[in-house]
Amino acid sequence: MDQVKPDGYVRVAFATTNLEDIDAHFGSAKRFYVFDVSEQEYTASRIIEIKEKDTDLTIASLFGIDIVYFVDIGPAAAAKLINSGIFPIKYKEVVAIKDELNKLTKMLGTNPPPFIKKIIEKKAA
After folding, report:
1. What are the CA-CA distances from residue 28 to residues 7, 24, 79 (Å)?
2. CATH number belonging to domain 10-95
3. Are strands 10-15 and 31-37 parallel, antiparallel or unpaired?
4. Confidence of residue 94 (pLDDT cuts 50, 70, 90)
5. E strands along the chain, which residues?
């Protein structure tokens, strides 16, 4: 069971094949590695295993996630993610999860972009 987290964190999920890199297409991802990230640290939360290729079921399994990272996504799936309150981030190349976590931690401690500020404010409300 997930722990209650303090204000000022975001819950992110990474589409991954190897639990080390953001290297999977959203629609064909078999797992998402979930982390809670604050300006001080990041903590692995859980791994979401995807059993069936179904966009609606995948999005439902990501309930509670604020941001999801992947290497590609179709327009219909992207719209469904956004409508579910999950912010999609697409990379054109494979990126190490650890590198993205370090970047996100640093960003939270300095001046996060408006969409992240909005996520944090919504959690605090």
Report:
1. 33, 7, 17
2. 3.30.420.130
3. antiparallel
4. very high
5. 10-15, 21-22, 31-37, 42-49, 67-70, 87-90, 95-96
Domain map of the chain by residue range? 10-95
Residue type at position 89? I
Say what the pTM is: 0.91
> What are 71-90's pLDDT values in tens digits?
999 999 999 999 999 999 99
Structure tokens at 18: 């190897």
Distance CA 80, CA 99 (A): 27
Which pairs with CB-CB distance under 8 Å and at least 24 residues apart come from 53-57? Answer: 53/27, 53/28, 55/27, 55/80, 56/80
pLDDT band, residue 31 (cuts 50/70/90) = very high
Burial status of residue 91 (CB atoms within 10 A of its CB: 0-12, 13-18, 19 or more): middle
Both tokens of 6, joined, read 């303090």
